[in-house]
C-alpha cells in the first residue's frame, strides 16, 4: 500500500467521522417523529446484544436499525442512529477513561460507519423490485462488507480482511432473516403489533440462544485444544483409529525422537504398526469386547524401528454395543527396562562389593607379610636365582592391584573428593600400562590431553584409566592392532576416550558389561570393568561402550562432570 495513502487515509476517515454529528443534528432538526427515537433506542440496546458466531466472532444487528431508519426517515436519520449506537458502544468499551486517542478512535469508527451507509442506502432505494425483506438483508450485508473493508485498509492487513470473510462465511442465513423480518414488519405502513411483538420476542430469543451456543462452542473448542495440547506434549504415543483401523489422529510422543512424525502415521492402519509375533493378540484386542482399557505388552515396528510398549486400547462408544473408534495409548517401556537393568546391575555390584570386601580384608594382611619378606630376602634371591626377585615382585604387585580393585567394589570409603587433573591421571595410567603394551607389541597412541579438572579420588581415577587401557591392549593384541587414548572437555563435562582396533565386543556381551562373571574376552571374572563402572558411578559420571566398524574394534567413553572451582 502506498505510503502517502496510508498517511492520508486515517485523516480522511476522521473527516468523514466529523460529518456524522452535523448530519445527525440536521436529522434531529428535520425529524420530530417519535419513530426515530424508537429506532435509536433499539439500536443502542442491540449494541449490547450481538449475535455470537463460532470462533468468537460477533455480528451486530444494529445495522438493521440503520437500514430501518434509512428506509423510513432518510439518510440523515440513519446517520443519527449510527451516532447514538456507536457512541453507546464506545462508552461501554472505554470504561470511563476518555483520552484523545479514544476520541480519535471514535471518530474513525463513525467515519467507517458513515462510508458503509452510502452503498447500503443506495442499494436499499435502487433495488425496489425486491421485497423489503430481501432488500434490508442485502443492504445490511453490503453495509458490513464495506465497513470491514474500510477498517482493513486502515490497518493495512490482509489478515483482518480474512477474519472478516471468515465471519461472513460463518453467518447463518437465519441470523439475517429474523432481524430483517422484524425490520420489515416494523416498516409496514399499518404495523400489526400482534405479529410484530412475537417476532421481536423471537428475535431476542434467537440472540439469547446464539450467545449460549457460542459459549458452548467456545467451551468445546477450549476442551478440544486442551486435550490436543496434552496429547501432543505427552511422551506417550497417542493414536485415534476408526473401527476399520485407519489412524485419524496421531501424536507421535516418544517416536518423535526417532524421526517419526504425524504425517507418516495419518491414514495408515494400526495393524501395520504391530510386530508380526503380536499381530494375533492385537487382532483380538481391537474389538469392542477386547478393548478393556488395560495395559498390554506389545512390540511395535514402525518404519524399521522396533519398540516394546505397554499399550492401552479404549473404545469410543457410539452406543452400548458398537465402538465408533478406538484411542490407543502406547507407553515406551525402554526407560523402565533401562531403570530395571540399572537397579539389577547396582544390586549385583553391591553383592559383589560385599563379597570382595570380605575377601580383600582376609587377603591383604598375608599379602603384606609376603611382600615384606620378599623384600627382606632380595639379596638371597639375586644370589641363588638372578631375575627371580623381579618375577616374584611383579606377581605380588599384580595381586596387590587385584586387592585394591576388590576394595573399590566394596562400600566407598569416607574420603573427601579433591580437584584432580584428568590429564595427569591419564598420563600416570599410561606409565603403568606402557610395559604391558610393549610386551604385547601394541602401539599406544596419545591424542590431545587438555588440562581439565574433575572432583574425585585421584587413585580411583588413575585405576579407572588403567583398567580401560589394559582391556584395550589385551583386545588389540589379538589382531596386532593399536590403542588410542585422548580427552575432550566442555564447560559441563570431561570425556575420556579409549579405542582399540581389536576384534570388537560381541553384541551378546555388550549389554552385560560391568556385571559379575562377564568379561570382554569371554573369560575371567570381568573384575576390571566392574571396578570401572563402580568408580564412574561414585564420581557421578556415565560410561558408554560400543562396537566400532571400519576399523573393527571397541570404543569406550567415560563422561565425568567438570569442576569449576
UniProtKB/TrEMBL annotation:
Keywords: ATP-binding, Kinase, Membrane, Nucleotide-binding, Phosphoprotein, Transferase, Transmembrane, Transmembrane helix, Two-component regulatory system. PROSITE patterns: HIS_KIN (PS50109), PAS (PS50112). Residues 358-564 form the Histidine kinase domain. The chain crosses the membrane at residues 12-29, 36-53, 73-94, 106-124, 130-154. Its EC number is 2.7.13.3. This is histidine kinase. The keyword Chaperone does not apply. Pfam families: HATPase_c (PF02518), HisKA (PF00512), PAS (PF00989). InterPro entries: HATPase_C_sf, HATPase_dom, His_kinase_dom, HisK_dim/P_dom, HisK_dim/P_sf, PAS, PAS-like_dom_sf, PAS_fold. Residues 223-278 form the PAS domain.
Amino acid at each position: 500500500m502506498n505510503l502517502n495513502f496510508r498517511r492520508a487515509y486515517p485523516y480522511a476517515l476522521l473527516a468523514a467521522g466529523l460529518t456524522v454529528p452535523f448530519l445527525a443534528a440536521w436529522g434531529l432538526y428535520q425529524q420530530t417523529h417519535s419513530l426515530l427515537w424508537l429506532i435509536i433506542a433499539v439500536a443502542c440496546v442491540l449494541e449490547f446484544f450481538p449475535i455470537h458466531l463460532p470462533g468468537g466472532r460477533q455480528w451486530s444487528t444494529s445495522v438493521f436499525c440503520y437500514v430501518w431508519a434509512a428506509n423510513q426517515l432518510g439518510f440523515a436519520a440513519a446517520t443519527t442512529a449510527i451516532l447514538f449506537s456507536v457512541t453507546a458502544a464506545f462508552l461501554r468499551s472505554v470504561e470511563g477513561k476518555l483520552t484523545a486517542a479514544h476520541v480519535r478512535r471514535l471518530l474513525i469508527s463513525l467515519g467507517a460507519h458513515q462510508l458503509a451507509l452510502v452503498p447500503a442506502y443506495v442499494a436499499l432505494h435502487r433495488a425496489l423490485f425486491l421485497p423489503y425483506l430481501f432488500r434490508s438483508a442485502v443492504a445490511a450485508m453490503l453495509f458490513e462488507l464495506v465497513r470491514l473493508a474500510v477498517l482493513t485498509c486502515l490497518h493495512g492487513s490482509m489478515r483482518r480482511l480474512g477474519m472478516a470473510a471468515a465471519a461472513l462465511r460463518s453467518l447463518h442465513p437465519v441470523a439475517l432473516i429474523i432481524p430483517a423480518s422484524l425490520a420489515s414488519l416494523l416498516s409496514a405502513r399499518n404495523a400489526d403489533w400482534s405479529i410484530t411483538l412475537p417476532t421481536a420476542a423471537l428475535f431476542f430469543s434467537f440472540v439469547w440462544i446464539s450467545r449460549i451456543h457460542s459459549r458452548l462452542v467456545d467451551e468445546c473448542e477450549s476442551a478440544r485444544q486442551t486435550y490436543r495440547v496434552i496429547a501432543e506434549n505427552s511422551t506417550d504415543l497417542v493414536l485415534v483409529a476408526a473401527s476399520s483401523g485407519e489412524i485419524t489422529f496421531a501424536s507421535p510422543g516418544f517416536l518423535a525422537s526417532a524421526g517419526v512424525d504425524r504425517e507418516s502415521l495419518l491414514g495408515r492402519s494400526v495393524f501395520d504398526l504391530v510386530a508380526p509375533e503380536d499381530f494375533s493378540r492385537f487382532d483380538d484386542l481391537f474389538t469392542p469386547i477386547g478393548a478393556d482399557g488395560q495395559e498390554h505388552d506389545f512390540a511395535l515396528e514402525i518404519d524399521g524401528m522396533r519398540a516394546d510398549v505397554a499399550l492401552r486400547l479404549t473404545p469410543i462408544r457410539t452406543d452400548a454395543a458398537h465402538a465408533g473408534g478406538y484411542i490407543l495409548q502406547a507407553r515406551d517401556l525402554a526407560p523402565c527396562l533401562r531403570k530395571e537393568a540399572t537397579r539389577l546391575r547396582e544390586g549385583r555390584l553391591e553383592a559383589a562389593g560385599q563379597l570382595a570386601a570380605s575377601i580383600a580384608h582376609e587377603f591383604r594382611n598375608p599379602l603384606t607379610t609376603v611382600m615384606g619378606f620378599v623384600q627382606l630376602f632380595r639379596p638371597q634371591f639375586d644370589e641363588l636365582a638372578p631375575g627371580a626377585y623381579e618375577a616374584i615382585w611383579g606377581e605380588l604387585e599384580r595381586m596387590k592391584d587385584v586387592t585394591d580393585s576388590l576394595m573399590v567394589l566394596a562400600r566407598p570409603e569416607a574420603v573427601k573428593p579433591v580437584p584432580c587433573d584428568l590429564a595427569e591421571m591419564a598420563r600416570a595410567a599410561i606409565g603403568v600400562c606402557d610395559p604391558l603394551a610393549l610386551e604385547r607389541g601394541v602401539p599406544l597412541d596419545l591424542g590431545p590431553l587438555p588440562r581439565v579438572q574433575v572432583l574425585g579420588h585421584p587413585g580411583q581415577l588413575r585405576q579407572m584409566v588403567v583398567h580401560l587401557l589394559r582391556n584395550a591392549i589385551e583386545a588389540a593384541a589379538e589382531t596386532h592392532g593399536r590403542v588410542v587414548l585422548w580427552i575432550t572437555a566442555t564447560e559441563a563435562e570431561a570425556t575420556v576416550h579409549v579405542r582399540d582396533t581389536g576384534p570388537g565386543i560381541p553384541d551378546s556381551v555388550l549389554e552385560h558389561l560391568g556385571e559379575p562373571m562377564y568379561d570382554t574376552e569371554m573369560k575371567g571374572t570381568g573384575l576390571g570393568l566392574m571396578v570401572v563402572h563402580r568408580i564412574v558411578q561414585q564420581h557421578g559420571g556415565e560410561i558408554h561402550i560400543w562396537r566400532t566398524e571400519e576399523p573393527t574394534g571397541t570404543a569406550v567413553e567415560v563422561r565425568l562432570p567438570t569442576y569449576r572451582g
